[in-house]
Design goal:
Layout: E1 5-13, H1 20-30, E2 35-41, H2 52-65, E3 71-76, H3 80-86, E4 89-95, H4 99-115, E5 120-124, H5 135-143, H6 154-163
Parallel strand pairs: 1-2, 1-4, 2-3, 4-5
Amino acid sequence: MPQPDYGLAVYPGTFDPLTNGHTDLIARASRMYRRIIVAIAESPHKKPSFGLGDRIGLARQVLEEEGLDNVDVVGFNNLLAHFVEEHDAGVILRGLRAVSDFEYEFQLASMNRHLIEDVETVFLTPAEQYSFISSSLVKEIARLQGDVSRFVHPRVSEALRERYA
């Protein structure tokens, strides 16, 4: 593998759906890195509510409206380590909402370090007003006809309304 590009960060996830917490993290990371790839995992084992194409489309719309010109959205269905190597990225970006996230994220970071030694994992925390938001909670609220408009972009809120109508 060529020398990784430490100005290029990959932010992987299922993003089912993209929340305001994700968007906040991406916006802040976009000021730190020359380029961000939001890597949306197909993750069929998680049985996502939205297909990969829908999740990619929603993320692109939201991030474009946010004016994040150095952010690309790409889907993937292979090992994250392979995706990172294919893009010569030097950084894997991960979000930590609470201490409870740390153990799992630490385990992932350690495994990735063994798979792709030259790539660093960087953790960011969301702004305080987003620290409690999770895609799972948002989907559950939407499924039960609750209002998720404070937790997701209006386009995502509309997509959830249609999905759970």
